[in-house]
Every structure is written in C-alpha cells, then in structure tokens.
C-alpha cells in the first residue's frame, strides 16, 4: 500500500463505544484482555462492562485493521501467565483514537450550544473541571 492510499484516521470513524473504550484502555499501557475489561470498568465507574465475546471480537477486528498489535513483552514477568496475550496501540490506533476524541468533543460543543446540558459538569474522577 502506498503512502497516498493509506487510510486516514477519519476513515475509521465513528468508532463503536466498545472499540473506543478498548483503545482508551490501551493509551497508557499494554494490557491483556481481562486487564482491558477491568480498566474500562474502573475508568467508567462501572457504567461500562465489556463481556468477553464483545471484547475479543473487537480485539480481532482491531488487530486486522492494525489499530492495535499483540506484543511479546510482559509488563511484569513475575505475574505473567503464558496464556495471556498483551495488546498495545499502534501509531495508527493512537491517531484514530485522537480523531474520535476530537469528533466527540465537537458533538459535546454542539449539545452545549443548544443548551442540552444544563447544569452538566465533567466528572472530576475523569480529570474534568
């Protein structure tokens, strides 16, 4: 594939909510499947729960689309279980996730402009004001 025919990050949008959460879970560190599920549950204060079928189906598609990759490295060799597969974002995955975050921020701005979010404030636990 030539550089000019490479997909743009925007060509992957919009992301489904499970895919968005999986990519978000991989932003700061490599994780195995169960670790991704736990990170999503923690980060969303239990509001999003990924079931194994959804998670592993999405991981398979993300690997095929080259948004994530499997890694042989293990964050903590002492806690390693050889059956676990660890995943990390690719550069393309990072760019796609950033493009989706911008898209979602623009949607929130539009909702605010239409006064659809009265009294709304960001969740402080998520780093909002």
Please tell me about this protein's structure:
The chain has 129 residues and is mostly helical. It has a single domain (9-117), classed as Arc Repressor Mutant, subunit A (Orthogonal Bundle), CATH 1.10.10.10. The chain has 4 helices and 3 strands; from the N terminus they run H-E-H-H-E-E-H. The protein has a 3-stranded antiparallel β-sheet with strand order 1-3-2. It is globular. The mean pLDDT is 89.
Gist of the model:
Helix content is 43%, strand content 8%. It has 129 residues and is mainly alpha-helical. The radius of gyration is 16 Å and the shape is globular.
Topology, element by element:
Blueprint: H1 17-25, E1 31-32, H2 33-43, H3 52-64, E2 68-71, E3 86-89, H4 91-113
Antiparallel strand pairs: 1-3, 2-3
Helix pairs in contact: 1-2
The name CATH uses for the topology is: Arc Repressor Mutant, subunit A
Biggest sheet strand line-up: 1-3-2
Estimated share of beta-strand residues: 5-15%
The number of E-state strands comes to 3
- What is the CATH architecture assignment? Orthogonal Bundle
Question: Main sheet?
Answer: 3 strands, antiparallel
